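Late entry, pantoate complex.
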Amino acid sequence: MEIVVFGAGSLGSLVGGLLAREHDVTLVARAGHADRVDRDGLAVTGEHEFEVSPSATSDGTELTADLAIVTVKSFDTSSAARALSSGSVDAVLSLQNGMGNEERLSEELSCPVLAGTATYGAVLDRPGRVRCTGIGEVVLGSRTGGHSAVADRIGEAFATADIETLVADDMPRRLWEKLAVNAGINPVTALARVENGAVLEEPAAELAAEAARETARVARADGVDLADETAVAALEQVAEATAGNESSMLQDVRAGRRTEVDAISGYVVDRAETVGLKAPTNRTLAAALSTWERQKNVR
Ligand code: PAF
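Prediction complete; structure with ligand written out below:
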């Protein structure tokens, strides 16, 4: 299968590298990383150890592929969609954090847009070198739920490349559950500058759990069956499994980059307002992070 990974930072490079063992992969990445991969190949280290030679470019326009996997930051989704629409792709799969990405992609692209989640841990150590810090799973399916033949085909392509893959018919519920996990872990670890495991201990535990519970309340008001306890259990399970990892939001803060707080905590606050609820914990976390972003001039 011809696959473009659009936004090959840490997770995109890892997924692209795993897929390149079986498929014809092109990474769309920042110039330094793309040039190095194009010249010397991509080294995957950590839980997996291998080298592959995918194509790599920093120009995401006019590309042709059977599948484009989008892994850009949520605030770059629209520009990724515009670049992809200048080429020809048969299907798109979002493996991004935050909510609203699939809708934004569908606005620009006429091909099927699937939703997905990936629990692999990845760190881009330097251009051309990505470290797998935790073997996880890719779950994908129709963004509105139900069976999708396109998702079956893409799931098979992932499985052929030895990636733990599940094709699911309840992606809306899974996206809300992932949002609850991210709403609990990401802003708390980014603000406190701690690894994910810190949210399992007080006083961070109650803060993270309350952010996850608020997210579950909004999900239910949105028609998605996500109990408070399920959201908190998912948060704890991910925090335990990735205890030694730095969240993507903490990595962004450390690098002085804009974070995905708008598409995570900010999304919960906005949806809460629409359905007549309040989300004070998410509001506080979002305000603190966006204050930092403003101060750093990265918003
Ligand atoms: O954004 C992240 O870092 C990840 O989605 C997660 C699950 C919080 C693990 O670090």
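The longest helix spans residues 171-192. Will revisit in the morning.
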